[in-house]
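Late entry, written up from scratch paper. The run itself happened at the end of the previous shift, but nothing got recorded in the book at the time, so transcribing now.
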Amino acid sequence: MSINIVLCTCGETLNEKIDYNALKVYAKGLDGVKSIQETMALCTEGNKNKVSKALDGDKLVAVACTRSMCQLPIEAIMAEAGLESDNMVIVNAKEQVALVHRSRMEATDKAKMLLSAAVAKVKQSVPLDVVKYERSKEALVVGGGIAGLTAASELADQGFKVHVVEKSPAIGGAISLISKTFPEEDCTLCLRGPGIIEMLTKPGIEYHVNSRVKSVERTEKGFKITYEKQAVEFRTDLKKGKGVPIEAIPVANAGTPQYELVYRGGPTKASLQKVVESKCGNCTSLFPAATLNTWEDTGEKTLDVGAVILATGFEDFDPTGIPKWGYGLPNVITQYQLARMIDPLGPTGGVLARPSDAKVPKKIVMIQCVGSRDPEYQSYCSKYCCMAAIKHASVIKQLRNPEADITVLYRDIRASGYGFEALYNDAQKMGIRFVHGEVDNVTPMGDGLGVVYTDGMGNPQSIDADLLVLSTGMKPSEGADELADLFNVELTDTGFYKEIDEKVANILTRSPGVFIAGTASGPKNIPDSIAQAGAATYMATGYMRTYVERKVNHPELNEANCGKCGICRSVCPYEAITIPEEDYPQFDPLLCQSCGLCVSSCPTRALNTTTYGYDLIDVQAEAILSEKKDKVILGFICDDCGYNLMDTVGFVGAQYTSSFVPVYVNCMSNLSLRNVLNAIKKGADGVMLVGCVKDRCHFLKGTERSKGQMDIIQDFFKMTGIKTPLSILESSGTMVSQFTAAIGDLEARVKEA
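Output as recorded:
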């Protein structure tokens, strides 16, 4: 084993802050170091070529700037020299040393400690094996709403065969039950007609309606999916003149799924009753009738696919049995039922009428946030409700009954999208009244309704209505939890599919190859659902590329220590560990994300890794403390948010004590109490633990587990009376002032100790 050290001066600027001559002299004395080079800029082509030709060893330590800038250029240097990139460690001497310490001598001493730790770390490095495999070129889309259809269409355009599994007897989802969309009030017939016909006839898409996924098995090429096509019975009481059915309503308590067909007609009591029964989630549009796909045989079928997009949609919140909203009383309907009523292709032919007597309502009240933003029911905002109410109120005023008296009773109006505020302003100009208040109860009053509410000033008020419309929120689709179990997708507290990161990875799940789109991951409007479906398609097509290479970085097992207890399997958030009967744990290199939770959870220390294990943490801490000249505060820092934080401190030019020296840990959940105690034993005068803030860990269970680990360490210090000052900081990559304040406080405590 021989180690090359390359010192980059970043255009000679780092020489002003760090004594590179002293650093070179120091490096020559480190065990295993074979050659030392100095260069002005590793990131430039000329210097890269010079360095690669001069490399004479199998491992490399680069003293340079942040790895986000120089890692790829250094990996290119190693590749050109025929070296493995896994045998490389980068010391950030710019953002994490030169820019944060004023004293050149102190900065140089800290650089020496970091260099010593890097050499100790690179000694432990080994090249990782690479697995290469091919994925299936077929994809599965679960859900036939607008998000699912968009994803299926775009996947087919990319040349992939697509299977769409839809639990209802037809495709189209909620958009097929809406006649106009906001903010432009476009007619959805463009999608319901030619758009859906185009998708139905597009080569490469196969629809499996009235079907449900029953089992999922991972394979080398992706997933083996078993779905069941159920028999469905339609009550086809066809009569002359009825024409084509427009929707189907499930028949309650039927053994075999049965649907009653609904036809377009006038505003009769019968047709109005069908509107009341067709609350979104309990019916399906049958326009066009070709979506029925009745020719597919019933029973279980299997598919082999390379990627999955979950676009299971949503259900409308059901306010039945909650007195304050009056749902169940005559002439109390939801926005979706109103949408069916004013749809020219709906059961009433687009005529607005009261369900109780088929009369035209003169006074309409819309109540917002029904089942949304309410801790008793659903705490989240459903996002679309305000605009749906404004849209329907505007349509009524413009196209149905200009004389109607319409009041929108709201908590807050949230018109946050492009063109939404203009639609809100236009509605006010039409005479639609917006009243700030919270509904208390709804009661019958003559042949109408009385609505009692508390206004924004806390005063009781009341208003009469001929027709009451409830703006109900979105809830997860029925069966979403079962699919989550099958595909190993995590659910949020509210029951929607949980993405890896809602800001930067909101279509990725913890299960590789499984993506989410549309309202399956939470409330959103049609344009946002379509956009997310496009993003999911992009990720899925990339995932299914012909050959995939992946480094194998899962833990290694010491069978002599393994008790086959199964704890490692139980804590793995990615289901990457299996334990065959009478055998030891086995790791799936595709599923394992190298989080280290299994390593830190193993009670017998049977698991370890060369890239993030206990021993690797120990050797770095020992190397740093062996160079100790004065007090040293050892920082165990998350390698994601924590590393970014250290970079940001340098970017903004903040200053902190040079006695603070970091050791980066794959995840704070992987840090052991033993690592901390060993550091104290070797001479650490203070210890700081820097982990991610809540729900920001790049590993799924990391936040909860790392918080637990850090609490255990803190409690152990208190219980045993260890005097070494300890500080714990949960921080994101930009919380500079919090970090500098915490390290300043810890430094003061170290001096007092």
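The chain has a mean pLDDT of 88.
(Scratch paper discarded after transcription.)
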